[in-house]
Amino acid sequence: MTPEEWLANFESKIADVREKAEQFRVGLEASGTTVASPDGSIRVGVAPNGSLTDLQLADSALTGKSGAKLAEEILKLARKAQRGAAVNVAAAFAPLGGDSEAMHMVTGYVPPEEPEEPPAPEPVRERQLWQHEEAETPPPPPPRPSRPARPPRDDDDDDFGDTTFLRRD
């Protein structure tokens, strides 16, 4: 290979790497993700690095849920969005990384998928009482067992005598 051929080959490789780097930059910028709850009342957005960039709560997200349940749902959506962003980053890096150690490192940080929740059970409907029936009252709870009586305290301090070193004379 002549020096001119080698230089042309080298410049071609550099141009290819520049093109792939630019594709990676564009893909990385677009790797952020937004996910929403099934009813659309909660939306969570994350950047390509997984940091929270957006949180939108519709008024309907605040009704009928405890604070703990709302927080749980937000965190679940945030984890789902973070996983989506990590998958997008890995896909953007794939043309540069190929099957390299660097690619394995990037894909090694992809969080596991959230387990799907089983469908909610149907609400139990109470039986409607007819006019001639009386409502049943539940039986009272069983009585709590009483504590055994404590043995009497023996406050006899004869072992130490009546002298004290704290007394002033």
UniProtKB/TrEMBL annotation:
An example Pfam family from this entry, by short name, is YbaB_DNA_bd
| Biased amino acid composition, Basic and acidic residues | 123-135
Sorted keywords for this record are: DNA-binding
Q: Where is this region: Disordered?
A: 109-169
Enumerate the GO terms in the molecular function aspect: DNA binding
Pro residues bias: where? 137-149
Q: What residues form the membrane-spanning segments?
A: none
Q: What is this protein called?
A: YbaB/EbfC family DNA-binding protein
Whose protein is this, by species? Amycolatopsis nalaikhensis
